[in-house]
Amino acid sequence: MSEIVSCEFNIDTACVELRYAGGGGINIYCPGVEDSLDTTLSMRTEMDWLIYNAPLEYARRVLDGSLEEYVRSTAGTHGMED
After folding, report:
1. Helix, strand, coil proportions of the chain in percent (round to 5)?
2. In what order do the strands lie in the sheet with 4-10?
3. Bridge partner list, 8
């Protein structure tokens, strides 16, 4: 896989956008990811924290399938004020 040159959350599209050195990219539609998981409010807050503060980690966890396990184990550690 090509080297990632940028990763950011686009609030207009509700996507975390990954761009690669070769010119390709991946858009992850965050509401679709959240709706596909059985989550609580505190888990959604944790996902929101990742989206805004660590979009690359959010994308990595979505792509490797570890997001649900991660938010279950860390729910409640980040609030929107962090």
Report:
1. 45, 20, 30
2. 4-10, 15-20, 25-29
3. 17
- 36 CB-near residues (< 8 Å, 6+ apart): none
The whole-angstrom separation of Cα 65 and Cα 82 is 25
CA 43 to chain centre: 12
pLDDT tens for 63-81 read 999 999 998 888 766 554 5
pLDDT in tens, 1-52: 579 899 999 999 999 999 999 889 999 999 999 999 888 888 888 899 999 9
Rounded to whole angstroms, how far apart are CA atoms 50 and 9? 10
Instruction: Report the C-alpha gap between 14 and 8 in whole angstroms.
Output: 11
